Amino acid sequence: MTSSTEAVLVRTHSRKSIYMVLGSTVFAAVGQILMKFGMGYHMPAFDLHMPATWMPFMLALLGNYPLLLGYFVQSFNALLLILALKNGELSILFPIISLTYVWVAVASIYFFHDQANLWKSVGIALIIGGVALLGRASSRS
Known about the structure:
The protein has helices at 3-38, 54-62, 65-87, 90-96, 99-112, 118-140. By secondary structure, it is mainly α. The radius of gyration is 20 Å and the shape is flat. The two termini are 21 Å apart.
């Protein structure tokens, strides 16, 4: 293989890894939102020292579909990250994960009526700007 062919393969793997990490941020945000919905479900008391509380708690946990689905979606997040980090450049990929905070903040405003304020908006803008700078820097190398 020539060096130019190797360079094209590296760029292709790198770009694919970036898309996989971007996808993982969406899975992570969806999983976190689902888990938050699941925490709204009533759960019976659980005490390790009282075995009688174990079964009602486990049955309630198995019936908490948003929570279970949230953990299931998080497993896809982990899978995508593992696959992306296999061929990607860690110093570029890992900061992209911070976009999860952006998606969760926006979804929380919509679903849970969290309050947006200037500081949250500035923080979101800084995260997006930082990821954009990293993307620009990686495209030049």
